[in-house]
Each structure stands twice: as C-alpha cells, then as structure tokens.
Amino acid sequence: MTDQINEINQSTDSTTAPVDMTRRRLLGTVGAAGAAGVALGATGGALVHAAVESDGSGSPELSSVGATEVPFHVKHQAGISTPLQAVGHLIAFDLAPGAGRREAAALLRRWSATAKALMAGEPTGADTGVALDAGPSSLTVTFGFGRTFFDRTGLVAQRPAELDPLPDFSSDRLDPKRSNGDLWVQIGADDALVAFHALRALQKDAGAAARVRWQMNGFNRTPGATKKPMTARNLMGQIDGTGNPKPADRDFEKRIFVPDSGRPAWMANGSYAVVRRIRMLLDDWEKVPVAQQEQVIGRKKANGAPLSGGTETTAMELDKFGPDGKLVIPDNAHARISAPEQNGGAAMLRRAFSYHDGISADGVPDAGLLFVAWQADPLRGFVPVQRKLDRGDALSAFIRHESSGLFAVPGGPRAGEYVGQLLLES
Ligand SMILES: C=CC1=C(C)c2cc3[nH]c(cc4nc(cc5[nH]c(cc1n2)c(C)c5CCC(=O)O)C(CCC(=O)O)=C4C)c(C)c3C=C
Ligand SMILES: [Fe+2]
C-alpha cells in the first residue's frame, strides 16, 4: 500500500473540474464521512480526509485536508460552487491614482499567475514561507470587478447592466468606506496559514497599481470537525445553507452563472457576487428562548428541519396550520419569506463566512456573517429577496447590514489566459 495513489473526486459539483488529490501518495484514506470522504457544506459538499502518508523517510506523516487541490483553469472561477472552506478573506482594492487599463491588465496577469501557483500548492517568486509544509488545502482565489472599475479604466461600454447599484433598503446601515471597490478578491482555504499566505502574496502583487480599500476575515467549521457530513452553522447557531440551489439541480447553472452566449461576452460563464457584511446582534439573540428563535427562522435549531416537520431536507409546508389555527411556519419567518416560491423563483447560492472582530466600541460583539450570494443576475436573485426581507423579516430585529458590494466575476480563465483577459484586451 505504501505507494498507492488515491485519486478522489471530491466534487459533487458537475460544473467544477474534479479536485486533484493525485499529488499525495497515501497509505490510507479514512474520511470522517466514510471512505469517499464526501461531506455536505453550505454549498453541498466538503471533503473530509485524514490519511497517513509515507515520504520514504520512515516517519509517517499526517495528510488531511491539506492535500486537496482545486483547479484554477475551469469553466467557472473556483470559489463559487467549490465546497465551503474553513477560512476566508474578502478584500476590495481601488486602482491607485493614475493607474488605468494597462496597469489593471498587468495586475490581473500577476494575480492570476500567483493564484494558479498557490492553488497548486507551489511557492511564488518571493515566497514568505508561511505556507511551507502545507498542501494546497483547497485554496481558491476568485476575482471580481466593481462598477467603478469601468470608469477608472475607460471600459464603461463593457460594463454590464447587472452592475447597476443595488437599491437602498430601509434597514441598511452601510459604511461606504467598507463597501464596493474597483476590484474584489475572495480567498478561501481549509488552512489559515495557506489563506494568509495567499492574502499577503496578492496584496504584494498589487504593488503601485492598487490599494486595499477594505478587508474582511471570516471562517467556517473545519472540514472533518463533525462526526458526519453537515451543512454549516452560523454564529446564531442555525444550520445555514439548507435551501441553497444544488449543483445537481436542473436549473443550477442557469440560476448561478451567465450563459456561454451571455452578454457582455467577457462575462460568459461568470457570475455576480453580492457581498454584505451583516452584523448579528448576538447579545439580543442569545436572550431569546430556542423555541422563539425557531419561529424567527421557521426551522428547528438542532437539525434545521422545517417547523412543518420532517428532517433538514424535507420541503417546507408553507400552508400548514397548527392546532391553534396559526401557520406552523410563521408568515414573517425568514425561511418562508426568502423561499424561491415566495419570490417568483428568485434564487441565489449563499456561500458565507462567519466573522468575529472582537468587541465594538458600544461593548457588543462585532460578529456576524460575511454574506456572499452568487447569481446570474442580481435582479433575479438577491434584490427581490432582500426587498421582501426588508419589509417584514422576523430576523431583521437581530441583524444589521453594515456594508455592501456588488461584483462581476468573469468565467474561469482558459489555459494560458488570465482572469478578465477578455475584458481587458477587448
Ligand atoms: C437577501 C438574501 C438573504 C439575506 C441577506 C440573508 C441573511 C441571513 N440569513 C440567515 C440565516 C438563514 N437563512 C436561511 C435561509 C435563506 N436565506 C436566504 C436569503 C438571505 N438570507 C434564502 C434565499 C434562504 C433559503 C430559503 C429557502 O429556499 O428555503 C436559513 C434557513 C436554512 C437555509 O435554507 O439556509 C437560515 C438559518 C442569517 C443569519 C442572515 C444574516 C445574518
Ligand atoms: Fe437567510
């Protein structure tokens, strides 16, 4: 068994190329989810692995989540339908004064080369050594363009209408300094050092061309931490991600990605990311009895099952009444209001990270959700749902939207190309 090569196709996502584990020579593979090691995350899958590796030195090495590699050259950029990782960094950049299209093209070329190397577990030119010893750890780096990018680069004619500003919502408490940005980078990895290493490398690549506008750091449960595969929990303790469109759904591609023939042409196979930093008012939430918390969401806290009965994956019965004559899933329950059938089919892929930035000046936890919603068109995904939530969601008493961004994320680069090449060389 010493030289056995285990190839495991981690992906439950038909739109993402298989994750490559061939670079590790494994003695054995023992997944917490069983030999195939497939676990459900918020987006429908997260690999759990624990394995013993021999490097020929006689000392066995533990090789676990670190061995998993997500490919860079794929139809859709990695980090959209990729299983949710344990660590995330979201960073927005503004082009520096004087930097235009030429500088932006050079930057995206540098960023793409760095992302490709790091996602393969390879060092970069001036490597800091922070990620030495670790494998790729499911690292993904995803790049997007904000509305202002097109003004700065003289590419307004190429700007998609989908990047029109999001409407104002009555419950918004947005900080403009932590909102929007010319460029957006999402980093995800199952190892914090690997994620930090990528973050530093990409920040250095920015050089004189772009400056960090804002940065947010998030996390999720570590793959393998639960006994069996589970959807993620958020900092309110709820199972969060159950109702997400699944890659196996017939209309998944259509809902989440711009078609191959879509317009503008440079956005073919791309997607639009709505990013909201949503503070959770945890001191208030944690005083609410669990039964009442469940009424707020419309699902059981322990297992995510709808209040109408069944298990996590049972469909909600929105018309079911209890013996008291009341709807068992209240009419202001978050899961009811946000359900596609209540919103003309509007759906999005929610791929969030939790965040915790300590205690804020007012003495309460600065913690919540780095909400990232993916869709082919924000006007048929996030916007109608948030409009409805804004009008009467029971959850709104316990959350506060503090920043917002909307980014056009082009399709994955073909071999030899960099991300956004079709736009920048159009
Ligand atoms: C505008 C979109 C949404 C925002 C903003 C949002 C914030 C938010 N949600 C939770 C917790 C849960 N959300 C759940 C379901 C759910 N939420 C949205 C949309 C937004 N949520 C959708 C489309 C759905 C799915 C509805 C469905 O198809 O049934 C759930 C239930 C479990 C699940 O399906 O994921 C929870 C829990 C928080 C804490 C939050 C802001 C901090
Ligand atoms: Fe939600």
From TrEMBL:
Cofactor annotation: heme b
Predominant location: other
Subcellular location: Cell envelope
EC number: 1.11.1.-
Region (Disordered): 1-20
Composition bias, Polar residues: 1-17
Domain Dyp-type peroxidase N-terminal, chain residue ranges per copy: 77-220
Keyword Ribosomal protein: no
UniProt keywords, alphabetically: Heme, Iron, Lyase, Metal-binding, Oxidoreductase, Peroxidase, Signal
Cofactor details (free text): Binds 1 heme b (iron(II)-protoporphyrin IX) group non-covalently per subunit.
Catalytic activity: heme b + 2 H(+) = protoporphyrin IX + Fe(2+)
Domain Dyp-type peroxidase C-terminal: from-to ranges: 231-412
Enzyme class: oxidoreductase
Lyase listed as a keyword: yes
InterPro entries registered for this protein in UniProt: Dimeric_a/b-barrel, Dyp_perox_C, Dyp_perox_N, Dyp_peroxidase, EfeB/EfeN, TAT_signal
Source organism, top-level taxon: Bacteria
Family: Belongs to the DyP-type peroxidase family.
Annotated function: Involved in the recovery of exogenous heme iron. Extracts iron from heme while preserving the protoporphyrin ring intact.
Protein name as it appears in the record: Deferrochelatase
